[in-house]
Amino acid sequence: MNVPLLDIKDLSITFKTRQGNVPALENISFHIKKGETVAVVGESGSGKSVTAAAILRILDKAGQIDHGKIMFSGMNLLEFSERYMLNIRGREISMIFQNPRAALNPIRSVGKQIEDIIRMHGPVTKKNLYEHAIAALNTVNISSPEHRYHQYPFELSGGMCQRVMIAMAISCRPSLLIADEPTTGLDVTTQANIMELIKTKSTELHMSTLLITHDLSMAAQYCDRIIVMHAGHIVEISTTDDLYKNPLHPYTKKLITATPSERGNVDDIEFIPGNLPNLLTESLNCRFSNRCEFVDEKCVNNKLLYTEVSPTHSVACWRAEENATA
Amino acid sequence: MPLLEIKNIHKRYRMKNQNQSLINSLSGIFKKNHSNHPSLHALGGVSFEIQENESVGLVGESGCGKSTLVKAICRLTDINEGEIFLNGVDISAITPNKFGHTSHRSQIQVVFQDSHESLNPRYTAFQCIADPLKNILHIRDKTQLENKINELADMVSFPRELLHRLPHQLSGGQKARINIARAIAVSPRLLILDEPTSALDVSIQAVILKLLVKLRKELNMSYLFVSHDLNVVRMLCDKIIVMYMGKVVETGDAKTLYYKPAHPYTNALISSIPSINKTNRVILDGEISSPIDPDPNVCRFSGRCPKSVNQCQIEQPLLHEISSQHFVACHFVDP
Q: Residue B281 domain-assigned?
């Protein structure tokens, strides 16, 4: 039983563009255990969503998987045929997208859309479909589901649309739920509602959750472990508490100080100097080296190395050991 | 004399009559306005002041009337009732069409929400900043214009060599800087910032926030900072106004309001902010009641309020002072 639910090994993805090849992901490795909630945190352009798309095999055609494995309960998803993947998507792994209004079909009532996914995956008779859809709406605490069933996405508020998305995603009881920035564009109060809902549902159904977000404090509140990404590299993986108490990568440290917190003034927040490297033209061993204040020759000349500080905490920085002892 | 004083402003949007039956069922039998048209009450009697060189934060959920209030203040929309005083002059009497031609326009400037959408896609960064200089300050001299724009670019740390670029060639942070430069070009007394950082990454957000703090010190402006991120508002503002469905529910000193919120809605807002060390959270259930012809005698928050009782259904709570400069509109808060 020690096989992790999802195990990504050395995944590299290159996007072919007219200007040249962009190595969007380079040697990504991480795993998610059963029932675990893991967050991927990073700035826009760091490769968070590409990772999610790769897991579901819904990458853009320009994106090419160079090498690596995506093991899902012991099977390599990359070896499956497109046809077989249809059985995986929605049933085993499902995804909540960033903008629910854009992700839902605008000319089909939400009830019908939920029915579609149930019909696709479950042995459900036509008669029972309606009941299943209503039940799905009920599980996500939508009031008067019989009325909502007939409504279209534009008639629902943003938070309500996201609830419908969640209802669709969990209707077939997947073992892995990928939530790609599920609360951008929603109010803080709605955000709290949606995140609580995702959390209670994942414990109820024993789902693992991969939460993709740029908000470190949200990741900290809801997730067991955090993966910090920067420009297509994983820079740090750690349990949430450990990451906050003892951040080892300079990027993680900067990210924590840049996030406005409950206490502290404007003077306390720090920004991260520089921009993400242009992956089209620059090939760097450590992609943070341009922005890092501790950079030295070692960082520039040697290949990136992951140091395991503890079994649950690894970091991609040459100075990790130094920082850990300091 | 306060820089800006708003007295009891109301804004109602009339709605089409076609859904009469549905609207009637929503608004009940308490409809008081005489016309047949139902109306959406975006602002229901908002009053506050902004002092010279003060930074005021305005928070609330989407749909609570923040943006309508912004539009009303900078005279992009007419209001139904109430007065807006800028330096003692009632500007609510000037129609939105004429306001642009008065000298007041340069006093109030806005940095709009989406920094990409609010820049003309066919204007270069240079032209974007030049526009208000030409139209409001009537600067025609080319070298003078160029000097001024270079100076502004330096002020917001926008690289001069990128001034000839079009908005789509700039990054999110750079576009935000252009928006700020454009707004401060005419040296306004009041700068309204409508969620200036909502679309930015944390690292860029931090840079922009620092820039805003620096500019306020240098130019002695007042800020009206509209946001839903209470952490940011607390850092930047002296005073916070919390709105709910077109009404001010709580206002007070930033620190008092953040650490000792009195209104149940403010409390819920603050406890909704994600954080690593948060224990007892208030989660708001229920749905927002309809803003179309709301019952004037019912507290607008009562449908979602954890404390709601019968009194809230009969009497709308009014703002009352509970400690110095701290006003709350709730039956449950005593002075």
A: yes
- Other beta carbons within 10 Å of B7: 16
In a domain, B108, yes or no: yes
- Is A217 within 8 Å of B274 (Cβ atoms)? yes
Whether residue A240 lies within 8 A of chain B, CB to CB, comes out as yes
Q: Tell me if A220 and B229 make a contact (CB, 8 A cut-off).
A: no
Whether chain A has a CB inside 8 Å of the CB on B276: the answer is yes
Does B194 map to a domain? yes
Question: Would you call A28 helix, strand, or coil by DSSP?
Answer: strand
Q: Are A94 and A169 in contact (CB under 8 A)?
A: yes
Question: Which CATH number covers residue B179?
Answer: 3.40.50.300
Q: Which pLDDT tens digit goes with each residue over B265-288? A: 998 888 888 887 766 677 777 667
Residue A306 has what pLDDT?
A: 85
Q: Does A260 touch chain B (CB under 8 A)?
A: yes
Cα–Cα distances in Å, from B157 out to A8, A39, B102, B130, B161? 42, 34, 30, 17, 12
Domain encompassing residue B41: 4-328
B334 found inside a domain: no
Number of domains, chain B: 1
B226: exposed, middle or buried (Cβ count in 10 Å: 0-12, 13-18, 19+): buried
Residue B306, phi then psi, degrees to nearest 5: -70, -15
